[in-house]
From TrEMBL:
Region annotation Disordered: where it falls in the sequence: 450-483
Originating species: Paenibacillus woosongensis
Top-level taxon of origin: Bacteria
InterPro entries the record matches: Glyco_hydro/deAcase_b/a-brl, NODB_dom, Polysacc_deacetylase_ArnD, YkoP-like_dom
Pfam families for this protein: Polysacc_deac_1, YkoP
Membrane-crossing segments per the record: 6-27
CDD domains: CE4_NodB_like_3
Listed name of the protein: NodB homology domain-containing protein
Keyword Transmembrane helix among record annotations: yes
NodB homology domain: residues covered: 38-224
Amino acid sequence: METLLLWLFYISTLYAFIPGLITRLFGFRVFRRGIGMNEFALTFDDGPDPVYTSQLLDLLKKYGAKATFFVVGSNAEKYPHLIKRMHEEGHLIGIHNYVHKTNWLMGPAAVKKQIQRTNKIIHDIIGSNTHYYRPPWGIVNLFDFARRNETQIVLWSSMFGDWRQRLGADRLTERMLKKLRGGEVFLLHDCGNTLGANAQAPMEMLKALERVLQVAEKQGIGTIRIDDMIQRSEAVKRESRGQKSMAAAPKETSKQKASLSFGKRIVVSLWLLWERLFHFVFQLRTTNKEEPIFHFRIRPYRGEPVMMNGDIELANGDRVLELHFDNKRLFEIGSRSRTSVQIAIQMIRGVEKTLPELAQYVQTHPELMDVKALYGVSMINRGPEQFGFTVTDLPDSFFARSTRLYLKFLMSVIHPSGGDRLKQRSSHELIPKLIVMPMELLLDKYSEDGSHRRFSGKESGEIASDQESAEPEETALSATQPC
Ligand SMILES: [Zn+2]
């Protein structure tokens, strides 16, 4: 039962929750906002609608505005003339699934089908493919990331609640004007027939939009299609990257990351709440309640026998103390550190501090004396060895593969240069490995009355500088499998 629960947890977390979270938090691998431009993007979801879409197209024409439509495939099928008109009038067409259904409830094959079917419908009408995709409700799952080469996921920077009629055109106008500036991606709806929307809501939207377009015109703010916005933003990024590397000023990116916005902080706290729930369900323990670095639980080891340091064999069924790195700690370290070297040093200090605490804990809890080993999953290959861990391959399983993906995502979140860094690194360095240490070794090396209080005479400063010259990024990955 417990195993089943754990699997459910991993699968739900991996498949939907974490990717969604990372998307919202860091805009990782999705497009949400343009940079360095005076135009804003109008995007319309859920259509085409037989009543409102043609009114909207008239309005856009009147103001010379260009927009992006994320259409629902089944609607496009019913109203091909509207798709044709969008295309002919210079708007961009993207995909919003075949039926308006969340990707959380569908398997990867079903999502793929939704996208392909819609793409085919669009292709049959306008004669070309589209690879711009907005999942319903902006909810992405792991496989949406995997398909990134085929599809560009587009979310938004501003939404206004325009799907509710009672908001009214006045308040909607007010909300939209507040966000009216270059680079914004406005999310609006030209169809009110989806779950949770009001059928007549687009009427209010059209009124508000006309006023906003008038103000935009006065202020000299133009509209831009998403494809053009992405292209222009990338050019700006490339340019500024070139300038930055010439000026050699690496500080700014980490500073930006360090100051999380209010919204991001809310999401982080939701994640941490989720983690607390996990800790409660699996009754994770810690050696240090005020400043936890690791959490752990006792469970039987399942798998092939592993030969550990000191020639002790870990066999199937032996009790192990499974380590989980504290995610909150990880966030703190990640947001405080400017470079990967700093992350590495912080994490090494954390591990160094925890191992003696763990030894102490085991000694004072007689029921743990038959635990044979410390056990965790880590993505580093060299770091843990200096502490006495043996690093071995994880058997190739769905679990190993999903852990690998999860740790990759996690790493891109905590690392100062985020996902960019990951792309540069070859994949073999990101393979999760099993790390194990015999309990005897832990007690011997790290307990107060053990033969050595610290591992083989190395001081923390020395380790830190070792790491600086070695591969610091790898050490930053020394989180055992986080939950
Ligand atoms: Zn929608």
